Amino acid sequence: MSIDYDPTLQALFRQAEQEFDRDAFERRVMARIDRQRRKTMVFWSAMGVVFLATLSLIAAPLASAVGIATQFLPTALVEIETGWLQQLLSPVNSVAAAIAIGALAIRAFYRRIFR
């Protein structure tokens, strides 16, 4: 075994013996936090501008699609002559109900297969 000390290890011990400047450390940490906060604010502000620009471009087509859907979804699948029976079956006798039942069936199938 050698009595010679490792110079790198000795340098680390000398550095550890130096006095710790708490105020400088706090200033550096707070400066990093402030810089990160500013970057985050700039990023989210830019994302908000992009979102609003995209929303303004798709607002008209989206409104027309919703208008078409509100006219199409309540359409009856089967015409029923009797008034009371038509009222009774109206929740399930529509295009919207058929889409909802289909979605529930696909979900049940998916859960059965992948669980």
Mean pLDDT: 90
Indicate the proportion of strand residues.
Answer: under 5%
In terms of structural class, how would the helical and strand content be classed? mainly alpha
- Which regions are unreliable across 5 or more consecutive residues at pLDDT < 50? none
The helix tally amounts to 4
State the major sheet. Answer: none
Percent helix range: over 70%
Number of strands: 0
Give the CA-based shape.
Answer: elongated
| Terminal residue distance | 62 Å
Based on CA atoms alone, the radius of gyration comes out at 34 Å
Succession of helices and strands: HHHH
Characteristic terms for this protein:
mainly alpha, 115 residues, 4 helices
Annotate the secondary structure layout.
Blueprint: H1 7-17, H2 22-72, H3 83-89, H4 95-114
Report on the structure:
With 115 residues, this protein is an all-alpha fold. The chain has helices spanning 7-17, 22-72, 83-89, 95-114. The longest helix has 51 residues, at 22-72. The radius of gyration is 34 Å and the shape is elongated.
Q: How is this structure best summarized?
A:
By secondary structure, the chain is mainly alpha-helical. It has 4 helices and no strands.
